[in-house]
Write a structure and sequence with these properties.
Length: about 300
């Protein structure tokens, strides 16, 4: 999965730092699905080569083309990390060194600039949920849950979801008003048995996992939302006072429950509630009637209103 995006600002992004007019080029490895170190390195090389040549593609903005070819910035990411085995996690340092050596050799061979950044851990979200792995460095939000996605109300996909039994409702704003231009669709979702859950990890456990990835893999800021309970706040503050400066680039925090968001992207439910919704829906096997131009803009599960 390759994703390209443009950022036109003099500000520095919290997760993926970009110069004005620069694009990023991202790829992702489903770590739990990799069987050996040799396969892992092979996947990394294939993704690297696709990213590198994607960054050499012509761009209709000359400013973008110039800065992209100068920096050759990419982010080869990992997902399903908390489902990976100890053996799979042991490959990260070797994989990182492999990519750095590959970039030096490949760039010289093809007369390209070396990439100033190579690796990342991004939020991942739906890209990971579809094959059933945990997103990025996140634990599973819950064993059984509702997954909500926002779609522009006039999009053909809304009717397809409705016809297949998925709950469809207008977006409710925080102030209690209704946004009729945006529709929220709810999907039932369950993780495989044995998946590490957010309820099984303290906020400090999650921070330590982020710290490990920031140290051993990611050139960019490891993107993660840390789920916490109110009683953990003093311990979180103490931990960050000691470790933040030299171990983290940016962090987000969210109460795991009782956070006040009525249509949250994830909502923990019982197995019975999950099965009830599952039984009332039928899988969507075709979207031939829906137009998907601009689908790459639906970052984080929120598609723009056109």
């Amino acid at each position: 999965m390759i994703v390209r995006g443009v950022y036109r600002s003099n500000k520095i992004g919290a997760e993926q730092s970009l110069a004005p007019y620069e694009t990023c080029c991202l790829a992702e490895v489903f770590l739990p699905n990799v069987d050996s170190l040799e396969e892992f390195l092979d996947i990394l090389e294939l993704l690297y080569r696709v990213n590198k040549h994607s960054l050499m593609m012509p761009c209709h903005h000359p400013e973008t083309e110039a800065i992209v070819r100068k920096n050759m910035r990419m982010g080869i990411g990992l997902t399903g990390i908390l489902q990976a085995s100890d053996e799979q996690l042991s490959w990260l340092d070797t994989g990182y060194k492999f990519l750095r050596d590959l970039d030096a050799r490949y760039s010289e061979m093809h007369g390209l600039n070396p990439s100033i950044k190579l690796t990342t851990v991004k939020p991942s979200g739906t890209l990971s949920l579809l094959p059933g792995v945990t997103p990025g460095i996140h634990p599973a939000y819950a064993q059984f849950m509702y997954r909500r996605i926002q779609i522009a109300t006039e999009h053909a996909l809304v009717d397809i979801c409705r016809e297949h039994g998925y709950p469809v409702e207008y977006l409710k704003r925080l102030d209690g008003t209704v946004d009729y231009n945006t529709t929220v669709v709810t999907f039932p979702y369950a993780y495989p048995p044995g998946t590490k859950l957010a309820s099984e990890m303290t906020a400090i456990d999650q921070l330590k996992a982020i710290r490990h990835l920031q140290t051993n893999w990611s050139d960019n800021s490891v993107s993660c939302t840390v789920y916490y309970k109110l009683k953990e706040l003093p311990e979180i503050q103490k931990y960050l006072m000691k470790h933040y400066r030299n171990n983290y680039k940016s962090l987000s925090f969210l109460l795991h429950s009782n956070h006040g968001f009525e249509q949250a992207p994830y909502e923990e439910v019982t197995e019975l509630e999950y099965l009830k919704l599952l039984e009332s829906t039928t899988p969507i096997t075709s979207t031939s009637s829906a137009a998907f131009e601009g689908a790459d803009e639906c970052v984080g599960g929120v598609c723009p209103v056109k």
